[in-house]
Amino acid sequence: MSVLAENLLSDAVLADSYGAVRKRAQAELMRHGFPDIKTEAWKYTSLRALEKRSLVPGEHQPASPPPVPFDHHLLHIDAGRLLSDSSSLPSGISIEPVDSNRLAGLDYGNRGGAFGWLNLARFEQGLKVVINGRLDQPLMLALTTPDGHADACHPRIEIELTAGSRACLVQLDSSNGSGLVNAVIDLKVGENARLDHALSRHNGDAIWIERLDVALAAGADYRLVTLDGGGRLTRQDINVALNASGARCEVDGSVLIGARQHVDFHTAIDHCVGGTNSRERFRMLADGNGVGVFNGRIHIHPGADDSHSDLNTGNLLLSEQARINTKPELEIHAEEVTASHGATVGQLDEQALFYLRSRGLSAEAAANLLKTGFAAAPLETAVDDAVRQWLLANLGDWL
Amino acid sequence: MLKITNLHVAVDDKPILKGLNLEVAAGELHAIMGPNGSGKSTLGYALAGRDGYEITSGAVDFEGRDLADMEPEERAAAGLFLAFQYPVEIPGVNNAYFLRAALNAQRAARGEPEVDSMAFLKAVRESLKALKMDESLLKRAVNEGFSGGEKKRNEIVQMAVLKPKLAILDETDSGLDIDALKLVAEGINRLRDPARSFVVITHYQRLLEYLEPDRVHVLSDGQIVESGGRELAERLESEGYAFLESDAVEV
């Protein structure tokens, strides 16, 4: 058994109503194993840092939900368990346990999907949130760990928007611990529903692995804006399936990577049928000896004619030692489609720095202004004013 | 105000300025003309402190301070302003924010308090209006998507807000139509002041028709080869730079 399997799995399958699901997931995981750098989707991200962690359970005070400067409905999940009072949620939001039949049908594939299987085997409390109608305020989903958390936790949340519903989901991932957070978020956006999703994450030493699976029905509209402030080891998978005609998604993100940090974003947008649209823009900034990985896959399936996609990734290396591996990946099996993509990797523009300094800004202030301007662009697409301002303020604090 | 003595500047080890002398007193406007490649832009960049424009010998005294010892931002705070020939686009940074940050950075360096927001906005709006630029420009990213003429006018807006002691304008007239040229000239004339000086680098005489230069200099092969009043500019306009080759020794 690998070091990771020894650390993360247990012989005793959790005994609850999901026993069969967990047993199957554990068996799949044992069969495939965890990814290593020979696994294509993990080529640039080593799990050594996780292997070296001794994950220890402990009694800790639950974290408080991080404050945000706008009114919101709160779902606070600490170490995988719901902490907030769900009785205060409005009638348009209901919470129920995840359906074990649905879980039984999930397939995370081979070792590339090991953490999906691991989550399924070990999740603490599967929550399903159903949103019906238009929410008057953003729904904040805070994923935290207790202070000093050094254990593994596996939050699992499903959110479903019924047909024609509209919501703004603000997700805040934060941990000041040194353990593993292995989250799976499943989003289902119903016919003609619209979900604006903002995801903000800033971690120190915790290892954060998250998988976001989004399924869009006909005419559904999904907009994700994400700001990642970096962490010791972060891996974010974003998979969006445009399952029916008229579905569209926009995925925008800025990722700030500092010294001794490693952040890996793997996105996959599947145009499963024709008449679907996607647009994606990611910006990464790496400083010190930080490492960034971005893999943006667009897959236009056979028969998905008249699909349109645009993918753009821009990257800034802020030091000699920083590294960014960026790759747009297009797989097109249909006719009459447009699929454009672009990738740039560069450094701060000397001419722009001089221009700003010639106006009186110090070298440091000039560099900061350029970095902020570069990273702010994807965040500007956030629709809700207060949410956008909050993301931009976070950007200012974290740069 | 500005005294340049025997200035030599090299770019990539190639000598560009080769013993330039120039003295500009407070309140004066000097024009520097010269053919392509004579070193006009190099002079602007060297004065503003751009990396790679190395002063190999000579001295530049700006109000009693040696410019060579100062960082670009220190020169700005001391009152030096360069209007760029090719203003740089700064994506994602809005004009109003940038301009206020620049002004406050200069004020902080001079030990002055931050500018009052309302007074700042009022000053910027007035400058924009004078240059017939739309206020929406304030919310747009610096120079991004601006036409060539808008970029040049934006330099004048910045100059009007930052109120330098010495402004160096590097071919601010190039690429402007006649209406924009007049607006730029008016923008310069509004700022004329007994305590403020200008060095206007230009290729053509036409901008000088709207300004009142105290001196006109001709720069050729890294040196000032001829100086005179505005009649010199007129002579250049009618005869071109060709006469330099025969007259150069007269300096």
Number of domains of chain A: 1
What would you call the structural class of chain A? alpha/beta
Helix content of chain A: 10-25%
Provide the structure class of chain B: alpha/beta
Tally the helices of chain B: what do you get? Answer: 8
Number of domains of chain B: 1
Order of helices and strands of chain B: EEEHEEHEEHHEHEHEEEHH
Radius of gyration of chain B: 18 Å
Could you give a short account of the major beta sheet of chain B? 6 strands, mixed
Largest sheet of chain A: 10 strands, mixed
- According to DSSP, the number of beta strands of chain A is 20
Number of helices of chain A: 8
Portion in strands of chain B:
25-35%
Gap between N and C termini of chain B: 23 Å
Question: How is this structure best described in words?
Answer:
With 399 residues, chain A is an alpha/beta fold. Chain A has helices at residues 3-8, 19-32, 48-51, 100-104, 114-122, 350-358, 363-379, 385-398, and strands at 73-78, 81-82, 93-97, 126-131, 139-144, 152-153, 156-161, 166-175, 180-189, 194-203, 207-216, 221-228, 233-242, 248-257, 262-271, 277-286, 291-300, 308-317, 323-332, 338-346. In chain A, strand 1 (73-78) and strand 2 (81-82) form a beta hairpin. With 251 residues, chain B is an alpha/beta fold. Chain B has a single domain, classed as 3-Layer(aba) Sandwich (Rossmann fold). Chain B has eight helices and twelve strands. Chain B starts with a strand and ends with a helix. In chain B, 43% of the residues are buried. Classes of the chains: A alpha/beta (399), B alpha/beta (251). The A-B interface holds A 349-352, 354-363, 365-366, 369-370, 372-377 and B 48-51, 71-73, 75-77, 81-82, 84, 87-93, 98, 101-103, 105-106, 109, 141, 158, 162.
